[in-house]
Amino acid sequence: MPENNTNTTFKRLRNRYRLVVMNDDSYEEVVTFKLSRLSVYIVMSTIFVLLTGLTVALIVFTPLKLYIPGYGSASATKELRQLKIRTDSLEQAMQYKDQYLQSIKKVLQGDVTVKLDTTSLNIPPTETTTD
Q: Which keywords annotate this record (predicted)?
């Protein structure tokens, strides 16, 4: 039975059809096409492959590839990392400077609260040597 099924599938693909484009007012035939399902499938597949190829070529051979996330030159990526590290260190330095200025402001305004260190130290007794 599988042999009969494939035979009918090929027959259906090879059956010829006529596509006629007619003028609606005068019913005059403008264009006539003789098609089969196989020819329509081949034409549509070819168009799809060509459009896909053109799109890939457009992206690969033009500067559009730089808009793809993760794609770019190695030097640009390295430079971006260095700038990120520099920015982080500058932000940290600004925070330290802000803390320092706030502390200076408190001291100048007399708003200093001194916290005493209440932790006890266990210092072993020193050995004295007698000579």
A: Membrane, Transmembrane, Transmembrane helix
Domain identity same for 22 and 43:
yes
Best CA proximity match to 18, nearest among 34, 29, 31: 34
Task: Name the residue range of residue 102's domain.
Answer: 73-108
* Per-residue pLDDT band at 131 (split at 50, 70, 90): low
Reply yes or no on whether the pLDDT at 1 is more than 50: no
Apex 40 CA angle, 38 and 45, nearest 5: 95
- Average pLDDT (75-83) is 87
62-99: burial string, b at 16+ Cβ within 10 Å, e else = eeeeeeeeeeeeeeeeeeeeeeeeeeeeeeeeeeeeee
Domain assignment present for 18: yes
Give the confidence band of 125 by pLDDT, cuts at 50, 70, 90. Answer: confident
Nearest to 37 by CA among 64, 12, 56, 55: 12
Position 84 in a domain = yes
Are 50 and 24 part of one and the same domain? Answer: yes
What is the pTM for the complete model shown? 0.48
